[in-house]
Amino acid sequence: MIDLGFDKMLIVGTVALLVIGPKDLPRVARTVGTMLGKARRYVTDVKAEVSRSIELEELQKAKAQFESAARDVEHSVHEQFNQIGGEVSGALSGDDTSWSSSGSAWEPPPPAYKHPDKHWRVKRGAMPRWYKQRQGVRQKVQSGAARVARHRPRPGTLK
């Protein structure tokens, strides 16, 4: 970069004052400052875009690695499942003598899963609502003004 110290800036300023003149110097300085600001913002935007694209590439590489690992795990699970399924089907068909010699009858499979029809997402507190009401625990949030208005005595009730 260009090394601009205070002494060099002072020389540039005096030359600009002589060349441009004191009347137009503030307008030119304002224009130059605006252009420098725009240039800095442009450079910053370009740097941010480059860093985003680099991060995106890294994330895509990590995603590809993760997907390949997931496919490998899925493949191994399917292989194990097929192997165990073959062993079970062989045992059920009577190929294995240890199963057939036991003489035990096969039990029927357990009943299918039935959803309990509970509202899982409903928020439930640990303390029952009736107990909170009896103890005077606030159930709803009120602003300070609403609380004051609620507990302010009504006109005509105090005598």
TrEMBL record:
- Give the gene symbol: tatB
Which InterPro entries does the record match to this protein? TatA/B/E, TatB
Q: Which Pfam families match?
A: TatA_B_E
* Organism (species): Pseudaquabacterium rugosum
Q: What is this protein called?
A: Sec-independent protein translocase protein TatB
Region Disordered: start-end pairs: 85-119, 131-159
Ranges annotated as biased composition (Low complexity): 93-106
Q: Which UniProt keywords apply?
A: Cell inner membrane, Cell membrane, Membrane, Protein transport, Translocation, Transmembrane, Transmembrane helix, Transport
The subcellular localization recorded is: Cell membrane; Membrane
Q: State the protein's purpose.
A: Part of the twin-arginine translocation (Tat) system that transports large folded proteins containing a characteristic twin-arginine motif in their signal peptide across membranes. Together with TatC, TatB is part of a receptor directly interacting with Tat signal peptides. TatB may form an oligomeric binding site that transiently accommodates folded Tat precursor proteins before their translocation.
What quaternary structure, including any partners, is listed in this protein's UniProt entry? The Tat system comprises two distinct complexes: a TatABC complex, containing multiple copies of TatA, TatB and TatC subunits, and a separate TatA complex, containing only TatA subunits. Substrates initially bind to the TatABC complex, which probably triggers association of the separate TatA complex to form the active translocon.
Q: Does the keyword Cell inner membrane apply?
A: yes
Q: Which Gene3D superfamilies match?
A: 1.20.5.3310
Family note: Belongs to the TatB family.
Q: How does it sit in the membrane?
A: Single-pass membrane protein
Keyword hit for Transmembrane = yes
